[in-house]
Every structure is written in structure tokens, then in C-alpha cells.
Write a structure and sequence with these properties.
Elements: H1 2-5, H2 7-44, E1 49-55, E2 59-66, E3 72-78, E4 97-101, E5 109-110, E6 115-123, H3 135-146, E7 152-156, E8 162-166, H4 182-202, H5 207-223
Antiparallel strand pairs: 1-2, 2-6, 3-5, 3-7, 4-6, 7-8
Amino acid sequence: MLLLKNPNLMTEILNNNGELIVAIMAILLSVWSMIVQRNHNRKTYKPIPVLIKYNYNNRVRILLWNKGNGPLFITEVQARGKKSLIDMMPAETRKYTYVEYIDSLPGRVISPGENLNLLEFMIREDDDGKPIEGYADALKQIKRSLDGVIVYLDYTNIYQDKMKFVSQQLDFGNLADEDASTEEIEAWKAKKERELQLAKASIKIPIGQKMKLAFTRINDKLFN
């Protein structure tokens, strides 16, 4: 109020401290520009994990894609308490199928537009090129093991920001036996639903990340 009532005082302050005020404003503008640029770079080089299921009559594949513009650094993967999908597979299926999978994921990097083949089962054929007997039942067991699975991924970007990803629930349709009772089918559906609810409950955003998201939204409104 004093400055408003006395314009000469304002003029005197500006004349005596003009260089200091300009320097302070320049510093503040420089810091703000750095923050904006850093946020822009984080968005530009953000990795986006996507889990895709490929379901065929004689083959099943689970690929982890990076659909973002920056590299994805894996720190941890879990599915039903296991560190790899292969740990959930019935051991007896190996004699029927060719297995390709990755069991050591921490430390691996997925470049933009690339993927990791987490698991693949292909039907084995005999010397005459015919499917080995029993493959249909083996493949069904594999799909049953994967049905309802939710993959949890911890990863970082090039700035070492810690991020989490929870996949959609893998769904292979109706895998019940022809003689399965209604109770057995309903029990299987209930198990999948419980797993889905647990996944939703596990998604908790730390307070630090909430503040960062709020700042990002404010920054977007001001400069975009």
C-alpha cells in the first residue's frame, strides 16, 4: 500500500535495484524453463508397456511390447507370485510342445517399438511333419494355466523414474471340459474375478507421484 501511495518511492527502488531485480527475474525464468524442458523430455522419451496375447489353435505367445518413444528398463516382473510365466506351466506339457520363454527379466531393456517374448508354446511335430499325439490336451492345459493371469511390471525410464504397470487379465475364453459341472465353471469364473479385484486394489499411487502428476497437469494447462 505504501508503494501505491508513494509512486516516487517505487521509482527510487527500481532505479537503485533495477539490475538486481532483472537478475532475479532472469534466474527464476531460467529455472522455470529448465523445469518445463525436463517435463517435456520425460513425456517425449516415455516408455509405454503393453502386454499382448496371441492365441492360436496350435500356438500361444505372450509378448511384452514397448509402445512408447523411450527405452523401458525392467526392474521386476511378477505374475501370481512367480517371477516368470513359465513357472506356472504344467511340467508334463513339455513333452508335447516346443517352449520358448524368457525367465530372467530384471535388467533387460526394451527399445521403442520392440518386444520381449515372455512365453511361447508351439506344437511339436514328428519326423513326418504330423502333430504329436496329445498336443491338443497339452495346449489346453497351458492356456488354462495362463487364463486369468495378470502381469505386474516395475520399470524405469532413462531418467530412472520408477513406474508400475498392471496388465489386463489374460482371457482365453471358455476352457472348461465338456463334462465340467456348472459349479466348477462358476468357481473358475469367481477365481478370475478375485484375481482381477486384487489387481485393482494393488494399484496405489505414492504421494510423491501424486504431487508430480498434479504439477504436470498444471504445467500442461499453462503451456499447452
